[in-house]
Write a structure and sequence with these properties.
Distance between the termini of chain B: 30 Å
Order of helices and strands of chain A: HHHHHHHEEHHHH
Shape of chain A: elongated
Strand content of chain B: 25-35%
CATH topology of the largest domain in chain B: Rossmann fold
Largest sheet of chain A: 2 strands, antiparallel
Number of strands of chain A: 2
Radius of gyration of chain A: 21 Å
Structural class of chain A: mainly alpha
Helix content of chain A: over 70%
Radius of gyration of chain B: 22 Å
Largest sheet of chain B: 6 strands, mixed
Number of helices of chain A: 11
Largest interface: A-B, 25 and 34 residues
CATH superfamily of the largest domain in chain B: P-loop containing nucleotide triphosphate hydrolases
Shape of chain B: globular
Helix content of chain B: 25-40%
Oligomer: heterodimer
CATH class of the largest domain in chain B: Alpha Beta
Structural class of chain B: alpha/beta
């Protein structure tokens, strides 16, 4: 199993699409920073227009913490989409190039093979989120400096600079769990569909539907609390004044359960199916 | 016996692809599986290699090795973005084998590839990919190798080179090799035993030379002025440029050749023509 994981990591390192994924993430980050640099002050003014009549604001609200928060919001769509495309490709490319057959002609168990794919996908996801977080913190603080964070979440919430820092870090950690869920879903879709284009389309639809369903009230307490799409936003909860830790733990725990179930479904399907590419 | 497949059957929906196929292979021998396209060769090989499950029957491989059986299905499937070293490293590592420099060099040498090439396998010719695919299949020293249509797409020189390599592996390393092809000529000189697969069944099995001899009904005789020969005219030979096709019935081919010499004809070659219909057992192809 360890040697299979090492072999998977070697392949990922040598594939040019890995570099494209890293570049895509850094480009998104760069876009947010550049647009914030040129338009950020205007957005802040618009956001605080009413409050500025009644309150006096000191310091610069367009600071590194706000930029990090803006980049953090790419966890809604951009980052999971890139991750789903890249990670499903870990398997669909093996189907397309028929290398899956060659691997399976070696003394390699199907369970170990697909499990190693899942493990490597999760590690890859964590590394991508880590890269995003580290680069975001470094670049944002370097260009915009530190300062208090203003966030609009059911109203305007203000956080002191030090508090904003740890809230942002926790949000990235919690967001990583959501990203793992989407990555595992994409790999399971790849197991089911085999074809890259089909998997990309279904992954994108899954992501869009998941985001839409998050906003819909099902009029059912059970679905509103336990349906998977309602569990992917726990990282946003760190920007309420009082952090609802129990809700965050519950959501993350349940989402991890969904991740495991999705993974088990993928493993069962892969194990039961013939290797026919 | 190294491999014993008994009563293998496989269906895709209502289509019966394999019907009670039995195959017995001995150590160090080369077996050829001949059949037209769509007769179930690749399906049988995929089952032997464990890629797909048979609906019925059993497979027994008598090997104590880590990798009892290896093979290539259709064209070799390799990681095109990796070098030969990278490919061998990935496939070796995936089966827990450490690809040392010695092993790399030995694997490449075994299949006649140079260790100096460090570019991506995407740049390789099909023949070189076949060789590298064979090197991957040979990792961990399997006792049996299955090669599905290995000559497909190769140029004549490539076919000869692969023939030599397969013979070497069988003779020197005592590896049992099972090869499939839909072209009879590719396997006649190579295989010890031939199996004819038609309509999902093995309809004939036996020593290659014997099986082919039984299916030879026509001979191509090459020589000068053959159309003037009274012997050939009397047996209704069909003439074409410097050759004549004869289908001896009342008289054997050796007698025909003897009479041609007595007649003063210059015969330069006599080539047996395999009757594919007879070999494949008639209409089922």
């Amino acid at each position: 199993m360890i040697s299979l994981i090492r072999s998977e990591i070697y392949k990922i390192r040598k594939q040019s699409k890995t570099l494209y994924a890293l570049a895509a993430i850094l480009i998104i980050e760069g876009f947010v920073i550049v647009s914030a640099y040129y338009q950020g002050a205007g957005i802040i003014d618009l956001l605080l227009a009413n409050l500025k009549d009644s309150f006096e604001f000191k310091g610069n609200l367009l600071n590194g913490n706000l930029i990090i928060y803006l980049i953090l919001n790419s966890l809604w769509f951009h980052i999971p989409l890139i991750l789903m495309i890249i990670i499903s490709g870990f398997l669909t490319s093996e189907y397309k190039d028929r290398t899956l057959e060659t691997v399976m002609l070696q003394p390699v168990g199907k369970l170990n093979f697909i499990l190693s794919k899942y493990v490597v996908s999760i590690v890859f996801t964590l590394l991508i989120v880590l890269l995003l977080a580290v680069s975001t913190f470094l670049v944002s603080y370097w260009i915009f400096g530190r300062g208090d964070l203003v966030v609009y979440l059911d109203g305007l919430n203000f956080f002191k600079s030090d508090e904003a820092f740890y809230r942002l870090i926790y949000a990235f950690v919690s967001g990583a769990n959501s990203m793992i869920f989407f990555s595992v879903v994409s790999l399971t879709l790849a197991v089911i569909l085999k074809d890259a284009t089909k998997t990309w389309i279904v992954s994108a639809i899954f992501l869009i539907c998941s985001n839409l369903l998050l906003k819909i009230d099902f009029q059912n307490e059970f679905l509103n609390e336990l349906f998977f799409s309602k569990l992917t936003d726990s990282w946003q909860y760190f920007f309420y004044y009082k952090i609802p830790y129990s809700t965050i733990y519950f959501k993350n725990f349940m989402l991890f359960g969904y991740t495991l179930i999705t993974m088990i479904i993928g493993i069962i399907i892969f194990k039961r199916r013939d290797i026919q590419v | 016996m190294i491999l014993e497949a008994r009563n293998i059957s496989k269906s895709y929906g209502s289509l019966e692809v394999l019907k009670n196929v039995t195959l017995e292979c001995h150590k160090g021998k080369i077996y050829g599986l001949i059949g037209a396209n769509g007769t179930g060769k690749s399906t049988l090989f995929r089952i032997l290699l464990g890629l797909i499950k048979a609906d019925g029957g059993s497979i027994e491989i008598n090997s104590q090795g880590i990798k009892p059986i290896g093979g290539i299905i259709e064209k070799p499937a390799l990681y095109g973005y990796l070098s030969a070293y990278g490919n061998l490293k990935v496939f070796a590592r995936s089966q827990g084998l450490n690809l040392t420099k010695e092993l790399y060099s030995q694997s490449m040498q075994q299949v006649g590839l140079s260790i100096k090439r460090t570019d991506a396998v995407n740049n390789y010719s099909l023949g070189m990919k076949q060789r590298l695919g064979l090197a991957v299949a040979l990792l961990n020293n399997p006792d049996c190798i299955v090669l599905d249509e290995p000559f497909s797409g190769l140029d004549p020189m490539g076919i000869i080179a692969l023939h030599e390599l397969i013979k070497k592996l069988s003779r020197q390393n005592q590896i049992t090799i099972i090869i499939s092809s839909h072209i009879v000529g590719e396997l006649t000189d190579l295989c010890d035993t031939l199996c004819i697969l038609n309509g999902g069944e093995i309809i004939k099995k036996g020593p290659a030379a014997e099986l082919l001899n039984d299916s030879v009904t026509t001979y191509k005789i090459v020589g000068n002025n053959l159309e003037m020969s009274e012997v050939l005219q009397s047996i209704n030979a069909i003439f074409s440029k410097k050759s004549a096709f004869v289908s001896p019935k009342m008289i054997s081919i050796s007698e025909i050749l003897q009479k041609l010499i007595e007649e003063g004809q210059e015969v330069t070659a006599c080539i047996p023509q395999t009757d594919l219909k007879a070999l494949f057992g008639g209409e089922k192809i």
